[in-house]
Amino acid sequence: MTQPIAGAAARPEASIVERDLLATLNPLGRAGHIWIASLVGVCLLALVAYIYQLASGLHVTAMRDYVSWGAYMTNFVFFIGISHAGTLISAILRITNAGWRRPITRMAEAITVLALMVGASMVVIDMGRPDRILYLLIHGRLQSPILWDLVSVTTYITGSFLYLYVAMIPDMPILARFARERGRSPRLVRLYEILSLGFRETPEHRRRLTRALGAMAVIIIPVAVSVHTVVSWVFGMTLRPGWHSTIFGPYFVIGAIFSGTAAIITAMAVFRRAYRLERYLLPEHFQRLATLLLALSLLYGYFTLSEYLTAWYGGFGSDSRLLALLAGSTAYGTSFWLWGVFGLFIPIGLLVMPSRRSLTAIVTASVLINIGMWIKRYLIIVPTLETPFIPAQAAGITPHYFPSLVECTITAGAFAAFLLLFTLFSRIFPILSVWETLEDADEAESKVAGERASRHSSLAPAGLTILLIAGALTSVVPWARASAQVQKPVPRIELTRSMVDSQDMLVAKVSANGRPVVHAVVEFSVTRTFGVMTLGQDTTRDDGTARVGFPVGLPGDARGELKFRVTIESPSDLIGPPVEVVLAGGAPRVAFIDNVPRALWSSRAPLPMVATIIFLLLCVWITYAFVVIQLIAMRRLKEHA
Amino acid sequence: MKMPRREFLRAGLLAAGGLTAGTVGADRLLGAGAKSSGPRAAATLALTADGELVVTPSAEYAALAQTSDEVRRGIPGRRWVMVFDLAACDGCGQCALACAKNHFIPTDREYLRIFKMQDSPDLAPYWFPRPCFHCDNPPCTRVCPVGATFKREDGIVLIDNERCIGCRFCMAACPYSVRVFNWSRPNDPPEAHTRGYSPEWGYPRRVGTVEKCDFCADMAREGKLPHCSSHCPMGAIWFGDENDDAVTNSAGKTVRLSKLLRDRAGFRYMEELGTKPRVFYLPAVNRQYPAPNEPGANHGNLPRGGETQSAQ
Ligand code: SF4
Ligand code: SF4
Asked: Is the ipTM of this complex over 0.90?
């Protein structure tokens, strides 16, 4: 059975289009009220769960020390993923001037903005200390992928708001008129009027709008790509099996567009049914998106294959352990293969034959893909955390994670909030772009290091030529005084560093009552922070000297000095407290942090990284500014008129 | 799910956002907030971020609280290292016990964890005590968004629990699963409240923040060995200053670090990760105690045992 391609065949009259498309703004029926009420209910439940979590700490989740991220992070990746479809698809279709995009773009753009808001809030919910969120601004470190996330998600939210809004401007006068005719509240009329910026169908207005829209459509694509790349890097930048993968950026971006497209198709199907938009959301639109979805699912399958096949074939120990958990005979393995079948192969099967795919098949595939992609994200996050490099099992611990009731409630709340926001949006603004559906206007086109650990290996050669005589007999003096009364022979020890037979030696000269002491056993040691390190023992020769090798290269204190200790071990009548002597000749200490003031781990970011981030941001924000300038110019036109 | 009113109020306070600490002593607020430089004023009464009222004797507080800058810089000229002699470790778990006692660690976590490792069925099992490695290229510190975890000049990697936002990125980034989290509100014993908070000892704990082995930075400041090292009955844990080129163990023996590592074929765990740990191991050759699983062998983490992770 072939679906008729209905295209631009019978185009209904403008007034009818308006009536149909603005039908979403009509007062709700009973079903609508129930729908909204139940969404609000779920959201409130989630709010209660969150307050409970705030009060008791994250202990109420199932996350623990090994699996420290779970459902919230999964939601975060999922919603950010969905958001991609939106802007990315609408922008690509606008740039390529695909005529069939017209009824789809508004929905896609709205999904983006709303999914982003829900996604971003998931990170806050995941935080242990949401009260300290401002520290991200006060103490933010550019080296952290979380900061990259913060920056790119903020940029993306701003951009997609702007994009959604710019594309909505021409609808605003229509809406204002409509609301007035229907006797809606004057405040609503006023809102539409303000938002319209005085847009009218004049060439100048049109020119400004085209320009703004063109610029936005171009700039939003790299921003969208960057956002999901950076989200993937939160995982990819760590040293974890299953995460530290070079293809994670593109893998996540494709995954995002994949799930986003499926989300759009699902939303289209729902709105089509709920608001009777069959005349505008034609099977053709579904078919086109289905082709895109098919391509994306093949691509995602390809990425998945190359990700896991290389890990499996290469067979690194840690990768193998992860794969045994992820794809073996475990609960994760079952989910993984179920995902493979229901989230990938069955959708591909449903989509692969253009002549055979019915609307039901397309929508079924989309729903399966959406559910599957949530599970896939979960499978990317959790099993990796359960298989760290040092197996927890070796300490008698079995990491395990399954979302707790609180997490499930908050997750349900996130979905409810998304649907609620979407519903409310569609109550205030037309979910299909009225002006784009009405027109065949052409759209404008346009276009878009490392740790320098230069260790100063200042190999200060131990000054062999230095011959120092230091006679700091610190502890001897009081001891000598005390023992003088006991008539004990008073040993006198002189310590020097000298060359003996061209060897660098530490020489102790022992004498008592002015004569050298022979055959005394002398122990040499050197003081270190937590103890005294023995260097060796020697017996005094005829001239009363004993010697050991000088500890060449042993670091000294801040001044390069070493504190030696000489102790007489025998004969017993000479044994006494050690003699401490400070000699120069210690190796210089290695300054540590000064060598790497801008390492990835230090407090300031490497300059090339800072420069790159600032440059990229400037490119985007200057484009935003350009768009805003167009809008201001539009508003001025009205004042002159 | 009935919540005590106090809890509810507290939650409301948190939810209101931004407001963390109602303080009597304003210094607390400063300490938790922006870069607090200079010594903290002696506080007598303070409401912590966790909503607990802490009464601290002023003199003691002032004497013990380091300035933030000092704590962040570390002890100049030092580069602490630790060496585990796997041939001497008999898995008795005294180190972990001493660590737990002195850091008031709750029973659900360990800073120093003893693993029973066996690299392959053909090879003998051995005990593997694992503290934080205080990596010189620390992945955990790289990813911290707010600099709550930081690397000091003396090599120690510490956590400022008054700055940590609880994102747990560092837990994911540490390849050795060292970091643990305050999932629930802390229940520290009264002794943990006697000296105020400093990243150098990490208590009193803060809910929703991360913690780990701190190399006993406070002990090093006093010239004392870390608790694990000084409590090891086998003398298997050597600690010292790389700038001294010497390490000392619980028996009071001090040896030259470079020679020890050379003669005993010292290694660092998973060198290939490039993290440059400050903790070395000496291979378990010529052991003088029963290997794990042999008759008479110890159980590794004996007195405390690890909590099995489970869903609620
Ligand atoms: S062992 Fe882990 S927590 Fe310790 S410094 Fe290295 S990466 Fe950080
Ligand atoms: S959990 Fe705390 S210490 Fe760890 S990365 Fe996040 S803010 Fe930094």
From this structure: no
